[in-house]
Amino acid sequence: MTSNDPISSQAADRFGRMVAARLETGADALDYEVRERLRAARVRALQVRKPVAEHTPILVGRGGAATLGEGLSLWNRIASVLPLLVLAAGLVTIHVVQNDKRAAEIAEVDAALLTDDLPPAAYADPGFVQYLKSGGE
């Protein structure tokens, strides 16, 4: 039997009892040796039969940590907050480094504009853009 269905197991048990009762009625007419061999075979068959797993309800407590014997101790709180602090510190570090890089790039462009021979107002002139596109002729 491959099914764990309670109805099919009950039907199989009923069928087994019916067959056993039928065999018992004819067993009285048999010799003692034959009856003993049948009894031994019956005992072996019952030993081989798989035990039926019974479902027992499990009671679960409401206070999860309290039932485990663990409270929120100081070390547990530190261990739970520490990853968040490391993440926040990493984000702040990335922000500071990016701002420094951006400021250095802007300072480099400003220094190039101020040290050039052209005045900064020339870059805003639309005619200067046309002059650069034409190749400076």
TrEMBL record:
Cited InterPro entries: DUF3619 (IPR022064)
Keywords: Membrane, Transmembrane, Transmembrane helix
Membrane-spanning residues: 78-97
Alphabetized Pfam families for the sequence: DUF3619
Name under which the protein is recorded: DUF3619 family protein
